[in-house]
Design a protein that fits this description.
Length: about 350
């Protein structure tokens, strides 16, 4: 508080305000501008106010490589681009700003002055509209201390959706584990399907399909033709899958830190059948899903899909009469690797 001046009360002709601020996360920072309009008679030397930012937003300080609060006069050549002395104190996103004139300069009979501050948002902030409150505004003219009415404006924050590119090899399958929810792409030429492991019977994994969106922190198996699929962050609420046995890592991780016997997607010895086999490496790559068991009695697990999908060797369908179609219903004479309908059954050729 500018306590060296007597209190006068609300002064109707002194107004502080701000327009709503559109803040795109891809820009990194944004500038808050607080407009100040003063009356004809006033010749003010200082102002103090409190600004309350929403959680996750902070002012970029000089220590961060930014600027402190500044006072600019956009209509007066005397004040144009003239920075004034200022200081602030931060506690729980509450900023107490005290600005005073320097070199005998005064704010007088003009409008269009504004305070500016550069803000940033941390990773926890989602897209949305966030209110900013400015209150306890006091302006001093050397004799009196005048209250200005509190006000609120909004930060309209837009956060670019995260994406992840998953490559499916000619095996027709890949695993994925992300720490954010994603929408399953719908590519008319490839139509990837996504599954999780709901149970184990002997050495067979019971697979259930994931539809539309994949929750965060969910290990999945993606089935599709060879290619790269882009998964885009989902902005809606996605319920967790509670019966999924697949786990995963988001960064390169030492297997010794995971515990149990680790199984990962791959082929057996000498290019054998595709399945979840005991992992013999020391490190799991980022964004990979895996299966863990308390004992290692089973060397490998195969798959049982809910719609009757099977995995067969491509040689087993050559040299015999088979009705083979792609996923668009077109008959195929010489299938390569990928997903086909063979004799009425969705089948993955490897």
């Amino acid at each position: 508080m500018l306590s060296f001046l007597p209190f006068v009360g609300m002064h109707a002709q002194c107004v502080m305000s701000a327009d709503d601020l559109e803040f795109n996360a891809s820009d990194g920072t944004a500038d808050i501008k607080l407009n100040l309009s003063v009356d004809e008679a006033g010749r003010y030397f200082g102002i103090e106010f409190y600004m309350f930012l929403p959680s996750g937003f902070t002012v970029v300080t000089e220590e961060d490589g930014g600027e402190l609060f500044e006072l600019w006069g956009v209509n007066s050549s005397r004040w144009r681009n003239a920075e004034v002395a200022g200081k602030y104190f931060s506690e729980s996103n509450s900023y107490n700003i005290i600005l005073s004139s320097s070199a005998g300069r005064k704010i007088n009979n003009n409008s269009g002055y504004f305070f500016s501050a550069t803000i940033q948002a941390d990773e926890t902030v989602a897209s949305g509209t966030y209110p900013v409150t400015v209150k306890k505004i006091e302006i001093a003219d050397g004799t009196n201390q005048i209250d200005i009415e509190d006000f609120t404006f909004n930060i309209i924050y837009t956060k670019a959706a995260k994406t992840y590119d998953l490559t499916v090899t000619d095996a027709g399958m890949a695993t994925m584990y992300l720490d954010f929810p994603v929408t399953i792409p719908s590519d008319a030429n490839n139509l990837p399907a996504v599954y999780y492991v709901a149970g184990i019977e002997g050495n067979t994994l019971t697979m259930y399909e994931v539809e539309n969106t994949i929750p965060a922190n969910t290990g999945v198996i993606v089935v599709g033709n060879q290619g790269t699929y882009t998964f885009t962050e989902s902005t809606g609420t996605v319920a967790a899958i509670t019966d999924n046995l697949l786990k995963g890592v988001t960064a390169s991780t030492s297997v010794s830190s995971l515990g149990g016997t680790i199984y990962t997607l791959g082929r057996g010895k000498n290019g054998g059948l595709l399945g979840f086999h005991k992992y013999t490496g020391s490190t799991l790559g980022a964004n990979k899903a895996y299966l863990t068991r308390n004992n290692g009695n089973v060397n490998a697990f195969d798959f049982q899909f809910p719609d009757g999908t099977t995995f067969i060797n491509r040689l087993s369908v050559t040299g015999q009469k088979n009705e083979i179609y792609d996923l668009q219903g077109r008959k195929v004479e010489n299938p390569t690797t990928g997903v086909y309908i063979i004799n009425g059954v969705k089948t993955i050729l490897k």
